[in-house]
Amino acid sequence: MSHIPFPRNHPNFPGVDNQLNAVLNQIRAAVAGSASQALWVSCRLNRTGATVPSPVFVGWIEDPAARNLRTTNHHQHAPADTRINDTHVSSLYKKCFAVRPGEVVKRDWSADKADPTSQELGKIYYGETHRRSMPIVLGNQYVGTLNVAFKGDPTAKDPEIKQVLEDWAQKPTSALITHIQHQCEVSKLPCP
């Protein structure tokens, strides 16, 4: 079992990234034909030994079209390169740990403001307009979050997005849950 955080070259990164790539593919299919584009999927897990929400980025997969947006915006390095093992406790992460299982935490960046303590404040990688996040459940406890970013309002596809997030973040048989359960030593916090 690997402690959280683990180094970027750790064998757990490909395992998490492979699962996130599958999530991204399903999200892209869910929003196909809408005005929304899936940009990236990320996973944050609770730091080993933490007794409060204490997030660490352990995976980040971007869509190839999002990569083109990022480089056009003069960011040569993906957030995966700079944010892996980032431990910033965002208000979004804390909010995910406060909702009931099955709930999606939504962000609309035209109305919601970024956390003023974020190390990424003011950086525009992709022109993200919306985000959907869901707590990751292991047993009956929260261990992290699964997050997806969009360019364009995905609200019309929220039922489909919720289903994909729930299948990956909360079904005990999902490949992501299985990987976390067998490979990562995460701190588990009670569901509300």
Give the overall form.
globular
The biggest beta sheet, please?
6 strands, antiparallel
Unreliable stretches, pLDDT < 50, 5 or more residues? none
Write down the CATH topology: Beta-Lactamase
Distance between the termini: 27 Å
Outline the structure in words.
With 192 residues, the protein is α+β, with helices and mostly antiparallel strands. The chain has one domain: 2-Layer Sandwich (Beta-Lactamase). Helices cover 32% and strands 25% of the residues. Strands 2, 3, 4, 5, 6 and 8 form a 6-stranded antiparallel sheet that branches. Helix 1 runs antiparallel to helix 6. It starts with a strand and ends with a strand.
Write a concise keyword list for the protein shown above.
alpha+beta, Beta-Lactamase, six-stranded antiparallel sheet, 32% helix, globular
What is the element layout, followed by pairings?
Layout: E1 2-3, H1 12-31, E2 37-46, E3 55-62, H2 64-72, H3 79-83, H4 91-96, E4 105-108, E5 130-138, E6 141-151, H5 158-169, H6 175-183, E7 184-185, E8 189-190
Parallel strand pairs: 1-7
Antiparallel strand pairs: 2-3, 2-6, 4-5, 5-6, 6-8
Helix pairs in contact: 1-5, 1-6
In short:
The protein has 192 residues and is an alpha+beta fold.
